[in-house]
Automatic annotation (TrEMBL):
GO molecular function, one term: amidase activity
Sorted UniProt keywords: Membrane, Transmembrane, Transmembrane helix
Residues spanning the membrane: 20-47
Protein name per UniProt: Mannosyl-glycoprotein endo-beta-N-acetylglucosamidase-like domain-containing protein
Length: 215
């Protein structure tokens, strides 16, 4: 007789599905909520540990020291600062403010560069050149001792804002202090880039908080 293969049947046993009770559903929801809360706390902790500059780079934002933007200090405040430091540009706060608005640059940064470059025009050649930022002499500009020279402080303010707005921000895409300084005042030109960056950011922070005098 030919061998007949027996059909093999897979033994199956039907398991009872456990019913989800109201109590177990509540416990599950508690676990989920707790897990989410822990996750959010960890993320918040990590973000708080990042410096503002590093955080801005990771998120792709411009960062807290973006020179482009609306004024964060008033014309009256600028005048108070200029007066406090006995600047030869005293009384020109409204002009410094208005030029910043015109070119879309926060005047707090212009004031900080002015302070860093010449102590508000009280040191170096700035009192003669009327130059806010000690811009190097180039063709087409009157010059004095290697720096651009202007007839008035207003002209000097405008040229600085124009340089930062059109050359640095628009043409080169440099918008933050730590991007601008290495080009504006490089180490190779007998500057200390990191010190310059820290000084500008410190002054802007102090003035934004309402302090006229900075140490």
């Amino acid at each position: 007789m030919p061998k007949v293969k027996r059909r093999a049947y897979r033994a199956t046993t039907r398991k009872r599905r456990s019913k989800l009770t109201l109590s177990s559903a509540f416990q599950l929801s508690v676990v989920v909520v707790a897990s989410l809360a822990i996750g959010v706390s960890i993320i918040s902790l990590l973000i708080s540990m990042l410096t503002p500059r590093l955080a801005s780079r990771l998120t792709g934002s411009a960062g807290p020291y973006n020179v482009a933007g609306q004024p964060t200090i008033s014309a009256d405040f600028i005048n108070a600062v200029l007066d406090h430091y006995h600047s030869p540009a005293s009384g020109k706060g409204q002009a410094l403010y208005d030029k910043g608005v015109k070119y879309g640059i926060d005047p707090a940064y212009a004031l900080a560069f002015f302070m860093q470059e010449s102590q508000m025009g009280t040191q170096g050649v700035a009192a003669i050149t009327h130059s806010l930022g000690n811009i190097r002499a180039t063709d087409g500009y009157p010059s004095y001792h290697g720096y651009r020279k202007y007839n008035t402080w207003e002209d000097g303010f405008e040229d600085w804002y124009k340089l930062i707005s059109q050359q640095y921000v628009q043409n080169w895409g440099l918008t933050t202090v730590d991007q601008i300084i290495p080009v504006y005042a490089p180490n190779s030109d007998n500057n200390n880039e990191q010190q310059y960056i820290s000084s500008v950011e410190y002054m802007v922070d102090r003035w934004r908080s309402g302090d006229v005098a900075i140490s």
